[in-house]
Design a protein that fits this description.
The chain has helices at 42-50, 87-96, 104-111; strands at 5-9, 26-30, 34-35, 59-62, 65-69, 74-76, 148-154, 180-183, 200-202, 211-212, 216-217. By secondary structure, it is of the alpha+beta class. It has one domain (5-52, 81-217): Alpha-Beta Complex (paralog of FGE (formylglycine-generating enzyme)). The strands form four sheets. It has a four-stranded mixed beta sheet. It is globular and about 55 Å long.
């Protein structure tokens, strides 16, 4: 359970480097909500697939045996690792479970004070178990690392947004109501992108990303 409070989004202008979509810093009030301690696993998502849900792009069905399409080899599906799916698949699974994806502000509230997971900053290639970094049973685990996390927030400008003159098209062309914010980081995310304000984004059907998710209830 995450108590109601303020989520601090973005960066204060002029104090540190950030991309244009990270400015300006502002507060958003977030009502109380509960969030999954872990990212949704391959084991959990497999139940959804058996009920008619679409399989992850990273899965291969080899005669009734599910395999994972790893970076260098295909191997038996790691059931306790986070499932890598599109935003559409994550949203459908959450609805199937009677829940939803967190907003960007809710993610910030839940991730406040989190440390990077062990599977980040090029320390690995493929996902590891969602319990690999258990420390505090009262806090969400792996909010940073082991897979980017989809949110329900469409990628849009923060108040005070100004495109950078040296890269005017870094963010603005994607404020099109067709991209969704991702937070956290994947095994292949460099440490310089692990700052809380960093925003990643992709289209909802884009499968070629280490996109994980966890669910919330109000």
């Amino acid at each position: 359970m995450i108590p109601a409070g303020e989520a601090q989004l973005g960066l204060p202008r002029g104090q540190s480097f950030g991309w244009d979509n990270e400015f300006d810093r502002h507060s958003v009030h977030v009502p109380q909500f509960s969030i999954g301690r872990y990212k949704v696993t391959n084991r959990q998502y497999l139940d959804f697939v058996r009920e008619g849900g679409t399989a992850s792009f990273f899965w291969n069905d080899r005669g009734g045996r599910w395999m994972f399409r790893g970076m260098f080899a295909e191997y038996p599906l790691p059931l306790e690792a986070p499932v890598y799916v599109t935003h559409e698949q994550a949203t459908a699974y959450a609805a199937w479970r009677g829940m939803r994806l967190p907003t960007e502000a809710e993610f910030h509230r839940a991730a406040a004070g989190s440390k990077p997971a062990s599977n980040v900053d090029f320390r690995g290639w493929d996902p590891v178990s969602v319990t690999a970094d258990d420390e505090d049973e009262n806090a969400p685990s792996q909010m940073i690392g082991n897979g980017w996390e989809w949110t329900s927030t469409q990628f849009a400008a923060f108040p005070g947004f100004e495109p950078f003159p040296f890269y005017a098209n870094y963010s603005k062309p994607f404020f099109d109501n067709r991209h969704y914010v991702m937070k956290g980081g994947s095994p292949r995310t460099a440490s310089c992108f692990l700052r809380p304000s960093f925003r990643n984004w992709f289209r909802p059907a884009y499968p070629y990303v280490y996109g994980t998710f966890r669910m919330v209830q109000a």
